[in-house]
């Protein structure tokens, strides 16, 4: 029996987890803005190489305006707003917990379908929503105790990647609240973006083109916003002073995750691939336990909440 599609989806989940952990490492010594610029820049460089390979092989489909519009809007919502909110959430509550909120985007998708589109939803899917929401509440509760950690990574991380002062960091209720708000905002942005990307795929069925257009729009929008607010010279100085290899690696692994997922769709069903890739929340926790154990608290409540979120998403996606 061929499990190539499932293995590719699992690889995607692992790559997403590694990307989040490297993003978290970079944020320990640099800023969110640098995280966005560097990861998006790496994504676009990889996308251009992939597009070039497809072009010389004659595999680029004819573009149409409506498809380009949908993919551009999806990129603005996911790679721009979604990633910005996810990164902001990660700054406040860490990689593992912010990812638990991020992958809950199907809850918003179903809710939008019910309230806006008037769709009918099965009882198992509604049960899945309830379980996922309960899981998010448990993840939230897991932040309420024993959250004093030193911002110092373990020696399993290459020394050149992280140079951090060992100051104690308390997670205050206000910090938790901000992390949750950004986390939920990321889930909503990814949900709207995924709906828009699906509309784009209906009129321009090319995931490669969709990813490339979305990433280009994201880096364009974010760069223009930064230039307007801070000026081009200040941005150049910050990139030079605050560059982090961790962000570059995060960008590489996020691209690998996306292409692995789209490749998986050629060998397995969309529902199976979506279920497996949402295991990102567990791969982030597992990788984070070994790499970020002195930065983030990985406790039983977090694991229980993450598993509950994943279980709820399985019901939503399959039913």
Could you explain how this protein is built, in words?
It is a single chain. The chain has 319 residues and is mostly helical. The protein has helices spanning 4-27, 32-56, 65-93, 95-102, 105-115, 123-141, 173-203, 207-230, 232-242, 245-264, 270-277, 280-291, 300-318, and strands at residues 149-150, 168-169. The chain has a two-stranded antiparallel ribbon with strand order 1-2. It is globular and about 50 Å long. Mean pLDDT is 83; it is low at 145-169.
Write the layout of secondary structure elements.
Elements: H1 4-27, H2 32-56, H3 65-93, H4 95-102, H5 105-115, H6 123-141, E1 149-150, E2 168-169, H7 173-203, H8 207-230, H9 232-242, H10 245-264, H11 270-277, H12 280-291, H13 300-318
Antiparallel strand pairs: 1-2
Helix pairs in contact: 1-10, 1-11, 1-12, 2-3, 2-8, 2-10, 3-4, 3-7, 3-8, 4-7, 4-12, 5-7, 6-13, 8-9, 11-13
């Amino acid at each position: 029996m061929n499990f190539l599609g499932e293995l590719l989806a699992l690889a995607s989940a692992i790559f997403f987890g590694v990307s989040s952990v490297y993003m978290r490492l970079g944020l320990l010594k640099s800023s969110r803005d640098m995280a966005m610029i560097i990861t998006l820049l790496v994504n676009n460089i990889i996308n251009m190489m992939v597009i070039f390979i497809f072009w010389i092989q004659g595999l680029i489909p004819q573009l149409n305006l409506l498809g380009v519009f949908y993919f551009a809007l999806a990129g603005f919502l996911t790679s721009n707003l979604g990633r910005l909110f996810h990164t902001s959430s990660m700054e406040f509550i860490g990689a593992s917990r912010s990812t638990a909120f991020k992958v809950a985007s199907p809850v918003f998708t179903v809710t939008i379908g019910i309230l806006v589109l008037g769709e009918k939803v099965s009882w198992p899917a509604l049960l899945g929503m309830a379980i996922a929401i309960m899981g998010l509440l448990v993840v939230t509760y897991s932040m309420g105790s024993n959250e004093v950690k030193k911002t110092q990574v373990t020696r399993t991380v290459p020394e050149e990647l992280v140079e951090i002062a060992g100051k104690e960091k308390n997670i205050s209720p206000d910090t938790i609240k901000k992390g949750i708000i950004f986390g939920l905002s990321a889930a909503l942005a990814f949900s709207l973006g995924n709906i828009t990307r699906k509309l784009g795929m209906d009129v321009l069925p090319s995931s490669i083109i969709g990813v490339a257009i979305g990433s280009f729009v994201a880096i364009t929008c974010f760069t223009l916003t930064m230039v307007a607010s801070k000026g081009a010279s200040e941005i150049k100085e910050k990139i030079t002073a605050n560059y982090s290899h961790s962000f570059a690696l995060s960008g590489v692994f996020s691209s690998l995750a996306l292409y692995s997922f789209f490749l998986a769709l050629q060998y397995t069903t969309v529902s199976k691939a979506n279920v497996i890739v949402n295991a990102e929340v567990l791969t982030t926790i597992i990788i984070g336990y070994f790499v970020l154990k002195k930065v983030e608290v990985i406790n039983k409540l977090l694991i229980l909440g993450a598993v509950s979120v994943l279980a709820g998403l399985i019901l939503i996606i399959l039913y």
